[in-house]
From TrEMBL:
GO terms for molecular function: 3'-nucleotidase activity; 5'-nucleotidase activity; exopolyphosphatase activity; metal ion binding; nucleotide binding. Residues 3-196 form the Survival protein SurE-like phosphatase/nucleotidase domain. One of its GO terms (cellular component) is cytoplasm. It comes from Paracoccus onubensis. The keyword Nucleotide-binding applies. This is 5'-nucleotidase SurE.
Length: 272
C-alpha cells in the first residue's frame, strides 16, 4: 500500500512522527509512506489553498517533502506533482495536537487535508489527539493515538464506505480521547457536535508602534456538547469516528425552502 501523510502542525511536529509510525505499520514491509507536509504550522487554515500565489515544494529526503502552503496544498502537490506517476492508496492527515471534534472541525487544517484528498477521489482519514488534564502529565501525550491508531484505521479500511461515485466522496474524522492509552474505553461512531456556550474569539492588543493586532482564541475545550456527538463521546473516554463529506448543504431545509421560493419568472417582453 502507498500512503500519503500530511498534517497542519508542520513537518517537524511530534504528531506527524506518530502518524509516520502508524502509516508504516499499515503500509507493511512492501508498502511506501510518503510525507508531504507544511514547512511551518498551518493550524486553523481549514481547507484553504494557495490560489493567488505560488507555493514552494522542497524535497527533504526520500519520499519526504515540505511545502510553504496549507495541508490542502500539500495534498494537491502530492497528487499533481510528487506522486503523480503513482497516486496514494490512502491519505492520512494528523495526528493533530489537539482535538478536531465539534466546531473545531470547521477550522481544522488537518480535516482540510483529508477533505482535499476526498475531493481528489482518494480515501482519506483525519486523526487528532484530544488533550486535557489526563494527558498533561504523560511522557507521550499522543499515547492513545499511538496505541490505537493502527487498529482504528484498519477497521475503517475493512468496514467503512469508500464508494466512489458522482457525489462528494466520504472521508473520516477520528478523535482520540484525552486519556492514557490503557484507559480508552472503546470506539463510537458519532456525528459532529457543538460545544455549548463555547466559541472562537479574538484577543486584541496594541503594538508599541500603535498598530492594532489580535490573537485568535479557541473556546473552552472541556465544555459539554450535545449527547452522542463526537465531543460527548470523546469526553466520555471513547475514540470518535465521524463520516464526513465536502458538502455544506443543509439537506433538511431543501424541500421546505423550495416550497416557498421556487418559481418561474414570466417573460413579459412579448414577441413583437
Amino acid at each position: 500500500m502507498r500512503i500519503l501523510i500530511t498534517n497542519d502542525d508542520g513537518i517537524n511536529a511530534p504528531g506527524l512522527a506518530v502518524l509516520s509510525e502508524i502509516a508504516a505499520e499499515i503500509a507493511g514491509p512492501s508498502g511506501e509512506v510518503w510525507t508531504v507536509a507544511p514547512a511551518f504550522e498551518q493550524s486553523g487554515v481549514g481547507h484553504c489553498i494557495s490560489y493567488s500565489h505560488p507555493t514552494m515544494v522542497a524535497r527533504l529526503d526520500n519520499r519526504r517533502y515540505a511545502t510553504e502552503g496549507s495541508p490542502a496544498d500539500c495534498v494537491l502537490a502530492a497528487v499533481a506533482d510528487v506522486m503523480a506517476d503513482a497516486l496514494p492508496d490512502l491519505v492520512l492527515s494528523g495526528v493533530n495536537r489537539g482535538n478536531n471534534s465539534g466546531e473545531n472541525a470547521m477550522y481544522s487544517g488537518t480535516i482540510g487535508g483529508a477533505m482535499e484528498a476526498a475531493l481528489q477521489g482518494l480515501p482519506a482519514i483525519a486523526l487528532s489527539q484530544y488533550l486535557g488534564p489526563r494527558t498533561a502529565g504523560l511522557d507521550d501525550p499522543f499515547e492513545a493515538s499511538r496505541r490505537h491508531g493502527v487498529a482504528i484505521i484498519r477497521e475503517l479500511l475493512d468496514h467503512a464506505d469508500w464508494t466512489q461515485n458522482d457525489d462528494y466522496c466520504l472521508f473520516y474524522n477520528v478523535n482520540f480521547p484525552a486519556l492514557p492509552a490503557a484507559e480508552v474505553l472503546g470506539t463510537r461512531v458519532a456525528a459532529q457536535g457543538r460545544r455549548k456556550d463555547s466559541r472562537f474569539s479574538v484577543q486584541p492588543y496594541s503594538a508599541p508602534n500603535g498598530r492594532r493586532f489580535m490573537w485568535a482564541k479557541g473556546g473552552d475545550q472541556q465544555a459539554i456538547a450535545n449527547e452522542g456527538s463526537d465531543v460527548a463521546v470523546n469526553m466520555a473516554g471513547y475514540i470518535s469516528v465521524t463520516p464526513m463529506r465536502a458538502d455544506l448543504t443543509c439537506h433538511d431545509s431543501l424541500s421546505g425552502l423550495a416550497g416557498k421560493l421556487d418559481r418561474d419568472l414570466v417573460d413579459s417582453r412579448g414577441t413583437g
